[in-house]
Amino acid sequence: MRILHCVIPAAGLGTRFLPATKVLPKEMLPVLDRPAIQWGVEEAVAAGAQKMVVVINAGKEMIQAHFTPQPQLEAVLEARGKTEELRSVRASDHLASFDWVHQDEPHGLGHAVLCAAEVVGDNPFLCLLPDDLSVGATPVLRQLHEAFGQLHTPILALKRVPKEQISRYGCATVAETRGRWHRVTRVVEKPGAGKAESDLAIMGRYVFPSSIFPALQRLKPGVGGEIQLTDGIAALLAEGEVWGVEFEGELLDVGTPLGWLETNLRLAAKHPKLMV
Ligand code: G1P
What we know:
Blueprint: E1 5-9, E2 30-31, E3 34-35, H1 36-46, E4 51-56, H2 61-66, H3 71-79, H4 83-94, E5 97-102, H5 109-114, H6 117-120, E6 125-128, E7 132-135, H7 140-151, E8 155-160, E9 170-178, E10 181-189, E11 200-208, H8 212-218, H9 229-237, E12 243-246, E13 250-253, H10 257-270
Helix pairs in contact: 8-9
Bound molecules: 1-O-phosphono-alpha-D-glucopyranose.
């Protein structure tokens, strides 16, 4: 079955990047020449998605404006013969179709994904957290979509991290392994220091069946008093198999000042016009 939707939660407060994100949505911070979230949308499109479902909250309307035609700007660029600039401006609103869903209360990542239920309907969907940017030959979300095409189960992106870092992430315990694919037996959101069962972190890329929605709906608040996406995945594990892909390539953090700076430098070094 072909997947068309990609849910992009973008309703976080951006507390890891204050004061830059006091007013500016963190998703709009530029990475080289485009906002961080545009890199995410481009990855989702490269993974086969055509319909973006972006979950925003009050104050994030600028994200919506970025993916909407701006006729006045286009007219000025056209009149001045700035064809390359015009092409880049038009590119962002022609990438995909967009649905904008509002999360009115900050109840956590699982709740944000649940807000997309009505638009996604009874379809499997991709999910991408735009705090990380995929670099490498095959976009991470595409590697997950390919695994879904064969396994037909929920799919998680997995990465081995040093033991002292695992408590920042959802942690997956795995059993059976087929190359880079691992069958997941247990998931725990942000396990306390020394309590993690493995060094496999769940990174911000997923493929979900629509059954994640009723699972999220039933959840009680978890770590941090929030509805956790990882707890929704644990509920899916009770219903059937879940697989993880230890992906090739890298996910680069753009959600903290240091990560953002390093990512810009890494990408600039490869960019023909920006080499530093
Ligand atoms: C979220 C998820 C967590 C995952 C992480 C990946 O956490 O809840 O399971 O490992 O994204 O970046 P957050 O970074 O929002 O605290």
